[in-house]
Amino acid sequence: MRRRTLLHALPTLLAAPALAQPAWAPDRPVRIIVAFPPGGSTDVVSRLIATPLAEALGQPVVVENRGGASGMIGTEVAARAAPDGHTLLMTASGPQAINPSLFPSVPYDPVRGFAPILLVAVYPLLMVTPIDRGPRSVAEFVRHAKASGGRLNYCSIGSGQPSHLAGELFKSMAGIEMTHIPYRGSGPAVIAAVAGECDVLFDSALSSGPQVRGGRLRALAVTTSKRLPSWPDLPTVAEAGLPGYDAYTWNALVAPAGTPPAAVARLNAEVGRILAAPALRTQLEAQGAVPGGGSAAEMARFLDSEISKWAEVIRAGGIKPD
């Protein structure tokens, strides 16, 4: 009887490991293309994910930097790669959601050219002013701007960059006029703000935050719809007077269009698990980021909304690339 019972159970026991196996697994190294030079936030988050992802997949995961042309060179390389799950792109708001409306043409389709996997991280911006300026809140700043008759200005880290578009969105929603002063990168823009060369700057918490904590800039608000965990006492722009305002940069993992759904599902599950780990969340928050997650379908809807939002801001502001 015992032998018959074991024999009866054997097919199930043999099937159990097969059922537990993932539906897709890479059979060679996986590369994550980063369309920017080493050292930036997109590169950093890719490398934070690469090691645990390699452990989960059982294959090396290599980060490959292909910078240039505002992220369009690396993005095109990824779009043309074989759609087999072995090439991924850690994309960002610039090349995926902004460039298609900013430039006359881009060498890829930001929607049809890729299979979304998941949102990896969101980077809120801080709305900061020189410490010696009068306004101490968003509402005070808007009143001051309206009273100034268009004499105020705002810095950005470059024309067409999220910092610039956040300022344009603020102008539009607040009904004010300000002159845009672009700088080449976050460092020079923050230095200019500290020196009082501009009245306001929208910049990442990672680069402007130390100047706020050091008493050289004043933070009026955070630009996302929710407060930043590392700045819990700082209100959002929406809370402080502009309901509906929401601006930020982000990273997301995508694959070339046509990548098997099983590969997308496995990668979504593994990276989602990695992002939920407390240690990694702490590392991302130290970079001024809010860890992402969610399904591939949610990522697709998010991308559509980002493309539409920034297309309208670019059109209304007549924004052109540098």
From TrEMBL:
InterPro entries from the UniProt entry: BUG, Bug_dom1
Keyword field contains Membrane: no
Keyword annotations of the record: Signal
Residues making up the signal peptide according to the UniProt record: 1-20
Record keyword Chloroplast present: no
Family affiliation: Belongs to the UPF0065 (bug) family.
Protein name: Tripartite tricarboxylate transporter substrate binding protein
